[in-house]
């Protein structure tokens, strides 16, 4: 007894900003996985080049080194993309926090509208 709450439970409101941040975070996670895969391929190409040089096959070693260089370029591009994506996520979250603080500190708005999300609607009487 007493475990049940007397208040009705409400579903949280998911805004378009929340969805955008979630999609960007998922994309960031996928890029980090891709970055790890590129790193393993890069290491493997270096091992192949060393093995081919040890066997005396210079053409295959050169090919492996060219593939390694291409993987390094992909890794650089992925790092740049990750940096931009992280900056966007931080920018959106900082804007949302700034809006919430503005709402809470604005005497015209008050706490009533802070539950409406990051876009304040100032109510006038």
Structural descriptors:
125 residues; mainly alpha; Helix Hairpins; 2 helices; elongated
Q: What order do the helices and strands come in, and which of them pair?
A:
Layout: H1 16-55, H2 58-105
Helix pairs in contact: 1-2
Protein architecture, described:
There is one protein chain. With about 120 residues, this protein is mainly α. About 70% of the residues lie in helices and about 0% in strands. The protein contains two helices and no strands. It has helices at about 15-55, 60-105. The longest helix is centred in the middle third of the chain and has 48 residues, at about 60-105.
Summarize the structure.
Helices cover 70% and strands 0% of the residues. It is an all-alpha fold. The longest helix has 48 residues, at 58-105.
């Amino acid at each position: 007894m007493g475990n049940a709450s007397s208040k009705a439970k409400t579903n949280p409101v998911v805004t378009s900003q929340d969805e955008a941040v979630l999609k960007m975070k998922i994309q960031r996670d996928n890029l980090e996985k891709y970055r790890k895969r590129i790193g393993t391929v890069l290491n493997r190409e270096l091992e192949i080049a060393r093995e081919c040089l040890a066997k005396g096959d210079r053409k295959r070693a050169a090919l492996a080194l060219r593939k390694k260089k291409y993987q390094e370029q992909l890794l650089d591009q992925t790092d740049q993309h990750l940096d931009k994506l992280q900056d966007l996520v931080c920018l959106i979250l900082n804007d949302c926090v700034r809006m919430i603080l503005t709402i809470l500190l604005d005497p015209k708005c008050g706490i009533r509208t802070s539950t409406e999300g990051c876009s304040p609607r100032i109510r006038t009487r």
